[in-house]
Amino acid sequence: MDQYQYPNQQPNDAQYQRPPKPDNYLVWAILTTLFCCLPFGIVSIVYSSKVDTLYYAGDYTNAQQAADKAKKWAMWSAIACAIGVTLYLMFILILAATK
């Protein structure tokens, strides 16, 4: 496609090459929304949906930042779930021990 837009330039010229597309972590965002912490997972979905749009618009720096934020919020969702399950199990064990 670049050949037709720039007939005198080779498609592999450095100025026309895109950096590799960052992972948008959409699968992790959806899974952590469904199985972990809903609010953090939704934030992760919002950021992960921005990655492709920013990348194909040529805004590579913000696409990478959105990917990093999507990953961060998915991790926080999983961590919040682990903390919640741990606290719940501790509560159940304490109740069982007091009977």
Descriptive notes:
By secondary structure, the chain is an all-alpha fold. The chain contains 4 helices and no strands. It has helices at 2-5, 26-35, 38-56, 60-97. Helix 2 (26-35) runs parallel beside helix 4 (60-97) and helix 3 (38-56) packs antiparallel against helix 4. The longest helix is centred in the last third of the chain and has 38 residues, at 60-97.
Short characterization:
The protein has 99 residues and is mainly α.
Topology:
Blueprint: H1 2-5, H2 26-35, H3 38-56, H4 60-97
Distance between the termini: 73 Å
Helix content: over 70%
Number of domains: 1
Task: Write the element-wise H/E pattern from the N-terminal end onward.
Answer: HHHH
What multimeric state do the chains show?
single chain
Beta strands, count: 0
Report on the biggest sheet: none
Let me know the average pLDDT: 88
Tell me the radius of gyration.
21 Å
User: Uncertain spans, ≥5 residues at pLDDT below 50?
Assistant: none
Features:
single chain, mainly alpha
